[in-house]
Fold these 3 entries.
Entry 1:
Amino acid sequence: MVTVENLRRHYHVGGQTVHALDGVSFEIPAGCYVAIAGPSGSGKSTLLNILGCLDHPDSGRYCLDGVDVSTFDDERASDFRNRRIGFVFQSFHLLPRLSVLENVLLPQRFLRTPDPSLHARALDLLERMGMTMRLDHRPNQLSGGQMQRVAIARALLMRPALLLADEPTGNLDSKSAAGVLALIAEIHATGQTVVMVTHDRDVAAQAERQIHLRDGRIADALAA
């Protein structure tokens, strides 16, 4: 499903070169649940951006679902990202003026050809998330845990090959965080490939495999 070969990404800051990723390689089989963990500055965010087709490596190769996406231009990467990758963010990224249902349906606005089946899929996903009674609510009328459930439903709308979760429990209390982690585990159990980025080792332990980064390199890889 995911193949990463010798990824390198360097930045020039204040006359110095920062090696954000320095020769990272790994594979993730389809249907696997992987946590990418490490302290601040370890390269997690840079790796997430590359996996999500938000950034390009300086060198190396990244294939998703058999497609080498590491050399895509911005337009092609954007189209591929919308169709094949779902994102769940720490701060939810819901649009405040849209309802719950409208937020979940947001990815369809970027389609070149409308897909009328997405409305029914959005309703089905929100039912799975326990949000049926909140369809017309705005984000400011929801709890943090509810907003994250809406964000997860939106991420799954396009049936992505890869679900990326960036610190998905970072803004939640312990009870809501446990609920969101349980929900991600349920989604993974349906066969969804999940990659979760976290600095929290307890959260990383929820995955079936862990990849720990340090100074832009893989420090260790653990199976649950």
Entry 2:
Amino acid sequence: MKAVVIHAAKDLRVEEREAETPGPGQVDVAIEAGGICGSDLHYYNHGGFGTVRVREPMILGHEVAGTIKALGQGVSHLAVGDRVAVSPSRPCNECEYCLLGEQNHCLNMRFYGSAMPMPHIQGAFRQRLVAEAWQCHKVADGVSINEAAMAEPFAVTLHGVNRAGALLGKRVLVTGCGPIGALAIIAARAHGAREVVATDVMETVLKKALEIGADRVINVAETPEQLSAYSSNKGYFDVQFEASGNGQAVRSGLEVLKPRSVLVQLGLGGDVSIPQNMVVAKEIEMKGTFRFHKEFGLAVDLINQRRVDLKPLLTGTYPIEDAVAAFESAGDRAKSMKVQLAF
């Protein structure tokens, strides 16, 4: 089979790898669509992120969906021919965090396409993937395989919503309108947000934000005063989903959040300084959010039931042979929102 393998920064290759055979409780999935994530781009552009570096060849990818081709012994709830979205989250279900129901913090997590441990955990950008049956969630008839492959990033934002608490009737600010920010808009709408305002520094992604459900968008590079206007009377928004990883977005968000509001940090960034006095005076809760677990099944259900429409986020598909071009396109925010590979 063919697989997309990162060797070092800007050294991405399509290579032949041996296909595996499913064991007990496993299934063999012919991968058909795989979305390029921000972490994939970090590996491609920089060879890693933070202290995490590629130290051996690693198959990339974790946003995938495909069709089951074979079943291992004991698999009864799936059948050959079923189309499935595959969760990349493989916790041990034995460590202290798993036993608390916090599988996203598993001490022995095996998340597809991760260079954190050594040897690296190989990813899912491959033509055939052997997965545990419990990782696979059926895709409804009429739902495209491309939509199904977006269940993983959507699950990230659904976990962010869980961290934020109830959104019914709340006014929500989304800072950063890349794929995760865009999906946060959709997730907030699905959970009853009364109003959603989105910010970014690029007009192309702000137009997309309006298309998928934002009530208003603000280009904070051109008209930052439009956001600042929300700071009167101690603030306006109940919840901020910060998806840019930019320190200024955090600070400006704190200014327009009302007392006892919640800031959920979705985007990864470096160390930032924050106005601590404002956090204290307004009693603002700042929360991190990391991956997901049970939310993956919810993401697939919402997609299957047509409760959400993720199709507008897909801006390009490339055959596996053109993986390098796909990664270059995915890294161009002016042109791309979500780019996928076709296997």
Entry 3:
Amino acid sequence: MRANSPIIIIGMSRSGSNILTRILEDLGLFVGKKKDRNNEAIFFNQLNVWLLGQCSGGLENPASIRYLLEDKEARALFVDFICYIMKTPKAVSFLGLRKYIRYGTPSNLDIPWGWKDPRNTYTLPVWLDIFPEAKVIHICRHGVDVVNSLRVRRKRGLLRLKERHTWIKPLYWLYLMMKFVPTNRQFIDLRCASMEEGLLIWEEYVNEARTHVRKLEDRAIEVRYEDLLTEPNPILKHLVEFCGLRATDRDIERVTMQIKRERAYAYRGNPELEAFAIRVAERLRAQGY
């Protein structure tokens, strides 16, 4: 059978890509054997982290990827290197052992497949070098809700290093050292200490993602998180067709049960967030909100 090109899900962190990916997975999209708690395939996540790391970039400063994208020689070599990695046993993390034995590399998959990672928003040109016929789904969410979610995640990260009972603190910090330092994982999102800076990151991601969507034309679609929650059926029917899935209307009805409609425009009702939304209303309107 002919190999399928992947579905690459892009969009700012905390924008709803988790629920979207879980739904698409339930409807038949293969998104990896080994995934983290955000439903991101660890294999492709690590490759994206590596790509950004070569440019001193990361989730909060991904635009530095331009140094790689503008270097034609390095870019071509990186693409070849990633293609090699996808053929090694490391790909078992994504494919699982049975699929690895059968296909040898994700590039040979003949089923609907893909992966999600906010970093895809900036590393996408590299992936399109590898998969020139890939399709892209961009999911976006109201900027104030994204900003607030980033703040909550930042506070949760800070709690890792807060004072604890004297007897447990050394053991807990040893656990943190083993978990975060060797893997270069982030403790907190430093740029998101203020809502203004968080909104700026959101704008950067949305603008970058929409640039890709415009260039790819019919090979890319944008999904608003709020529309997915409030009117899931028509959107999911379109996504099923776009991804080449075999899901039925009954399947779509089933997965909509996991959607929490009240999470749309969650900032409403919070005086601080509503005041911020009014203050940055012009910037929100510029992005369709």
